[in-house]
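Section 5: illustrative case.
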């Protein structure tokens, strides 16, 4: 087994030192801001609560909440570079337009996030003090220790004030003192980055928990609900598409092969009666029955291609669409770059989109030509079908494309139709491929 060691290049060193500077200034500015915030928030809140027996206390509390909100907004902006992410602005309750003075005054007092902002302004001094003490100690230890050789000589000492090494007779006190302090400086310097980073994260995580934690939780709940709704919509669309496909298959079998099989049975019965009296007519009836059998087989093959075309499974989407275009009654211009093999449900959905669109073009559009384009993009796979027909296509219920939209939605995609009445139809399906 070989181990690959990635060297620390100039770019990585610059990122490390840049983050060290960001974390240091965040902590050093956070301590005085914490003192200012504590004094203002506690003073204003105490004054407001103390004067609640009069009407003056409520406007003071309202001002306190707005003040805490301002400090919270500033802190969210400061936390972003430390956590390397942008904290979203939370939702605050707002009074209705045209609300009176007292209504606007009481709304912030009923807002949970406003109280969390005030709580942060009051108690942020605790993590700020811890972080400030660590950062100042480690920076002082690193800078002071590494520069001991430059300033140690300037410290005045009396002749009677000997260093401990000289007293016990192990060498020169000055050299050992400088060596000891320099060694401490090296230790502080080597541990400076993790200590400063940890101190900054302590203060930043405290701020994030109070200033954005509830909002982030709310956003995750909303996103989970959206995902649930999308999953339900896809399930509903899949059921609807399957039901539509079954109804269509049943209709096609009833209108095609079933009728031919009924006629075939009648022709064979008639031929059986004709064999004794009129063999020539019987042979003609049998020949007609054979022709009906061949036509029935062709219709069954066409239906099987509509259910699961073998060429799509064996050779992929590009070959299947090429064969589909060759059977179209309207000339088709294909733009099919090599997209490689995709997930089976994606290829099947794309195939049926083109198949249904070409069927509608042949039946309803009166178009003279059609263009099919398949391409990969950042959004997924785009399948576009355009014709120069009469237009008027729609995704509304009762139209042929409604079931196709359900099939695309069941695959996690989206189908759009642009079909003005003055001519031309454009169908675009976007299918996820990841």
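Designed sequence:
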């Amino acid at each position: 087994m070989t181990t690959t060691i990635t060297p620390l290049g100039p770019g990585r060193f610059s990122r490390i030192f840049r983050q060290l500077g960001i974390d240091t200034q965040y902590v050093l500015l956070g301590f005085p801001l914490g003192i200012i915030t504590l004094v203002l928030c506690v003073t204003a809140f105490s004054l407001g609560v103390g004067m609640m027996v009069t009407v003056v206390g409520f406007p003071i509390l309202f001002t306190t909440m707005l003040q805490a909100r301002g400090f919270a907004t500033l802190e969210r902006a400061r936390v972003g570079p430390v956590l390397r992410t942008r904290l979203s602005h939370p939702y605050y309750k707002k009074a209705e337009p045209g609300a009176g003075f007292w209504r606007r005054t009481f709304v912030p007092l009923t807002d949970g996030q406003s109280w969390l902002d005030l709580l942060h302004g009051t108690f942020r001094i605790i993590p700020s003090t811890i972080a400030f003490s660590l950062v100042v100690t480690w920076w002082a230890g690193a800078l002071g220790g590494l520069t001991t050789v430059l300033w140690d000589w300037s410290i005045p000492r009396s002749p009677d004030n000997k260093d401990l090494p000289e007293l016990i007779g192990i060498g020169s006190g000055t050299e050992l003192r400088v060596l000891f302090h320099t060694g401490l400086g090296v230790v502080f310097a080597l541990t400076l980055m993790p200590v400063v980073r940890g101190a900054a994260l302590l203060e930043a995580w405290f701020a994030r928990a109070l200033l954005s934690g509830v909002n982030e939780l709310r956003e995750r709940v909303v996103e989970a609900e959206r995902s649930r709704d999308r999953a339900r919509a896809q399930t509903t669309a899949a059921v609807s598409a399957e039901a539509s496909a079954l109804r269509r298959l049943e209709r096609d079998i009833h209108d095609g092969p079933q009728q031919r099989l009924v006629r075939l049975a009648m022709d064979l019965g008639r031929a059986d009666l004709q064999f004794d009296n009129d063999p020539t007519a019987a042979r003609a009836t049998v020949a007609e029955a054979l022709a009906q059998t061949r036509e029935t087989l062709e219709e069954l093959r066409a239906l099987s291609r509509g259910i699961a075309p073998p060429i799509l499974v064996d050779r992929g989407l590009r070959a299947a669409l090429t064969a589909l275009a060759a059977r179209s009654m309207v000339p088709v211009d294909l733009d099919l770059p090599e997209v490689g093999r995709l997930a089976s449900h994606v290829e099947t959905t794309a195939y049926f989109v083109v198949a249904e669109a070409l069927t509608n073009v042949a039946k309803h559009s009166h178009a003279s030509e059609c263009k099919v384009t398949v391409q990969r993009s950042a959004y997924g796979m785009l399948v576009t079908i355009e014709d120069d027909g009469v237009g008027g296509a729609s995704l509304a219920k009762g139209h042929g494309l409604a079931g196709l939209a359900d099939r695309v939605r069941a695959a996690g995609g989206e189908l759009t139709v642009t079909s003005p009445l003055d001519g031309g139809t454009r169908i675009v399906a976007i299918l996820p491929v990841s």
